[in-house]
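TA notes, week 10

Several of you asked for a full example with nothing omitted. So below is the full record: structure tokens for the whole chain, then the designed sequence directly under it. When grading your own attempts, check the secondary structure regions first.
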């Protein structure tokens, strides 16, 4: 993994050049047929002086539409926005090839609205793949995911009319229980399920637990059933590959077919930046032929989407370079490690994957009052919580951590547990 960092000036130049390569709604070239235009000028006036130094804001104001998928051909989907579409293409290439180690030119992708859309896009592709290639009936296809998975899995299964097989995990290690998996899959097969859309978490939201993609792949291979694995790295996609040099979540792993990696979680980009990456040859299964007015057709769930979102992701990756981003993510892990050591000193039971910045603490060690004061998130707001989690994000100050830990210690000393 390597890409060089760029200076702010270099980034500015590239982004402005890409905006100029788009046809400008204000420019000389006539644009009579597009149902889009620049942002309303009463509020978003284009001669605001700061815009000259603000490439992302300039992209927002010029308002390019990145409808469609831009990695399928070097030709632009909508010629009007060909300049900024090139940045999206470069972004997909960078993330797929440098961060997830894909072979050059062998991945497609787009900037979805978020992890939810990217996960559902994956399920949609594989559902259609099984229908087209195996003449599967809807009732024969199931989505398989652990009970710690994000709620976009049941949401997607519901929208796509698929059944769910929800895998049990060990209450301590949060690992998928393999014996239970065998029983659940056997039961589903006896009930007529023949095709499996398998989700592997590259970190669950609640625990930061990471599923064993190879165990999942080996299991379904040995069963000799058609399956596809999608990796939900909405949370971990921009941290784990940098903190674990031997990550198995790369396109070199034949079990992996697609990945969700949100910009708006660890990459600190604006909301609306959920990256979807997929091996070439698969996204065609969700081609909407009826997208008559889009020259390149549409393959996404979202339709129209802002080109500024792709630009924001590209800019952040470029300003840091791979070494800079690695340093930043490793620093977050170091900070997390330090908190864990303190918790151990107080004999507090917690779960943490060493490559991630999430600590799930057993709820008995923390009062609800303290959890509320520090905005810790509980595993359940419906039932009594079993866990509270800390996420060591870039805004988390050491001082805040220190006072929190002191308060935990004081509470424990005053109770029976400590
Ligand atoms: C946040 C998250 C999602 C959903 O992402 P949105 O961007 O909120 O749609 C899916 N999976 C995991 C693991 C997440 O952390």
């Amino acid at each position: 993994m390597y890409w060089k960092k760029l200076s702010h000036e270099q980034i500015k130049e590239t982004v402005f050049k890409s905006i100029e390569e788009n046809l400008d709604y204000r420019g000389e070239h006539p644009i009579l047929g597009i149902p889009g235009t620049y942002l309303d000028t009463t509020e978003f006036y284009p001669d605001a002086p700061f815009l000259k130094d603000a490439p992302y804001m300039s992209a927002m104001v010029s308002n390019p539409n990145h409808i469609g998928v831009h990695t399928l051909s070097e030709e632009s989907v909508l010629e009007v926005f060909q300049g900024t579409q090139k940045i999206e293409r470069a972004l997909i290439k960078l993330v797929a090839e440098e961060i997830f180690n894909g072979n050059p030119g062998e991945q497609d992708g787009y900037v979805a609205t978020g992890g939810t859309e990217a996960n559902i896009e994956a399920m949609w592709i594989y559902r259609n793949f099984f229908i087209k290639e195996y003449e599967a009936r809807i009732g024969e296809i199931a989505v398989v995911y652990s009970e710690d998975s994000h709620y976009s899995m049941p949401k997607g299964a519901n929208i796509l009319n698929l059944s769910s097989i929800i895998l049990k995990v060990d209450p301590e290690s949060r690992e998928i229980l393999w014996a239970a998996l065998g029983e659940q899959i056997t039961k589903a097969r006896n009930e007529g399920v023949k095709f499996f859309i398998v989700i592997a978490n590259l970190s669950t939201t609640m625990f930061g637990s990471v599923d064993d993609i190879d165990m999942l792949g080996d299991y379904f291979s040995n069963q000799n059933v058609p399956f596809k694995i999608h990796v939900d790295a909405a949370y971990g996609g921009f941290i784990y590959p940098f903190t674990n040099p031997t990550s198995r979540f790369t396109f070199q792993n034949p079990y992996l077919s697609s990945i969700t990696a949100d910009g708006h979680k660890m990459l600190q980009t604006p909301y609306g930046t959920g990256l979807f990456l997929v091996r070439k040859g698969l996204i065609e299964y969700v081609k909407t032929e009826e997208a008559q007015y889009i020259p390149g057709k549409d393959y996404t769930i979202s339709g129209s989407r802002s080109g500024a979102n792709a630009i924001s992701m590209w800019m952040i990756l470029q300003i840091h370079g791979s070494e800079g981003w690695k340093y930043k993510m490793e620093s977050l892990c170091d900070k997390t490690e330090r908190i864990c050591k303190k918790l151990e000193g107080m004999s507090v039971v917690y779960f943490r994957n060493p490559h991630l910045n999430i600590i799930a603490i057993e709820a008995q060690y923390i009062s609800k009052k303290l959890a509320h004061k520090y905005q810790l998130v509980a595993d359940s707001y419906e039932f009594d919580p079993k866990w509270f989690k800390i996420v060591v994000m870039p805004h988390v100050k050491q001082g805040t951590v220190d006072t929190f830990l002191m308060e935990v210690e004081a509470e424990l000393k005053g109770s029976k547990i400590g």
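The mean pLDDT is 96. Use that as a sanity check on your answer.
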